[in-house]
Structures are given as C-alpha cells and as structure tokens.
Amino acid sequence: MPELPEVETVARGLNQRVAGDVIESVWLGSKPEPLKSSARAIAAALQSKKIARVRRSGKHIVFDLEPIGSDPSSVQWIVHLGMTGSMLVTTPDADREKHTHAVAQLASGRELRFVDPRRFGRLSVIEHFSPPGAEPLDVSFEAFAALFRGRKTPIKSALLNQKLLSGVGNIYADEALFRAGIRPRRRASSLTRDDLRRLYVALRRVLKQAIKLGGSSISDYVDSNGDEGFFQLKHRVYGREGKPCLVCKTPIKRVVLAGRSSHYCPECQR
Ligand SMILES: [Zn+2]
Predict the structure, then answer these.
(1) Which tens digit of pLDDT belongs to each residue from 52-93?
(2) Which contiguous run of DSSP H or E holds residue 195?
(3) Which of these, 165, 241, 238, 235, lies nearest to 199 by C-alpha position?
(4) CA 118 – CA 82 distance, rounded (Å)
(5) Residue 208: φ, ψ to 5°
(6) Which one of 28, 66, 69, 81 has the minimum C-beta count within 10 Å?
(7) What is the pTM of this model?
(8) Which residues surround ligand 1, an ion (CB under 5 A)?
C-alpha cells in the first residue's frame, strides 16, 4: 500500500504536471466502491475548476481547486490510492486501462486518470480536508513523544495508528524501528526519551530518503509518469525475513502484530 513517501512522490509529480490546468469535464466509471462522495457531487465539484495546487496530506492526495468564472466556492478533490491505485497524466489517445474509474479531461488537452484494479482507492470532494493524525515531517519532537505517552500497545501498532501519526505504514514503521534499534513489540509507554528521540530522527530520515528516491515500488505502485520508485533497494528489514542483517548478519525475523507483518533484527533491536 502506498505510504507517505509514495503519496508525496505522486502528489509532487502531479503538481508539476497539472497545476494551473483546468478540468473541463469528468467521466466516472460505474463501479461504486471508489466513490466516497456521490458521482454527481464529484462531477459537480470538479467540472470547470482550475487545479491551483496538488499536495499530500497524510496518505491522501489533495487537489486544491479554484472556481473559474462566477462560482465563488472553492473545494478540494481528495484521492486515496488504497492498495493499487494510481493517478496518471496521459494524452486522450492512450489506451484506457481496464480498471479506470475516473477521467478528468483537462483544458491542455491531456487527461488525468484514476486507475485501481483492486478498488480500495477512494475519491471524494470536501471543503476543508484535514487528516486526524499529526504530520510526521512537521511534528515537533515534544508533540511526537506525547503521542506515545501511556500507550500500552506495541510501538509498531502505535506508529501505524493513523489517528496518532498520518501516513506511516508498514514499510516505513519497520525501517524506522530498525534504524532506531527498537523492537516492534516494545510497549510504546516503555520507550525512554532517548528511544523516542532516536525513533523521531530515524522515522523522519527514512521518510525523507524514501521521498528522494521516489518511494518504494512493491506491488503496483507507480508515480504520475508511470515510473517506479527505488527506496525498496534501501530496505534493511522489510521483506527480508531470514536474510542476514546488514549490520550484524543475524537472520531477520518476521512476526505478525495486529495482523500485519513486522520485520526486525533480534540482535540490533531491543
Ligand atoms: Zn542486526
């Protein structure tokens, strides 16, 4: 599932390519699942709107839309990529992929397409979107530390809790915990201030490095150009069960926590 760095990569690519363009018309497919707002509401909100900016908020892509002409209301188009969703900018003659659920025709003559084979992605329109959790790249250390105070859940589960932090998923939680030397099963409340400091630094470093490399391409993730990311080449524990730790050669372990795989080095992480 695309996490913060993948969504950031897609949002930045889209912003470069379609900011300033105008949505002239919208086509929506017949499958109901991807539409969190009604088809009518989405079409009405998008049509004849200028794309002022495309950005990421948590794991969501936010299109800030501005009215053209006399309509005074501004609105946001929110895209969640789910497991397999992608947003592609194409020419109208490019073959429309089978699992295309939405197409926005742009004044520049191009099309913006939402494609999602497994249909866990979501499209909606809203006036002011704000994700429930703190933004990992903006949160201060004090606010970050406060998120985990008194929490008896494993630190890995707390990192994945979108009400606490927005945008961190399985890959970057595992990679950050490895770099911080903390086992995924440790109770969040047992982390010392030093532990939390290392985790804070590791998480932000890993997210920023992944953004630089265009995210991790596992399963179907591609950016708005259809290109893959490269951070998967930097994974130290995620997906490396049984392989030697890159630091100490101990085989990497995998445990299941709250239904999700967690990967860690039993030697380097305590
Ligand atoms: Zn190790």
Answers:
(1) 999 999 999 999 999 887 666 789 999 999 989 999 999 999
(2) helix 193-212
(3) 165
(4) 8
(5) -70, -40
(6) 69
(7) 0.90
(8) 245, 247-248, 250, 265, 267-268
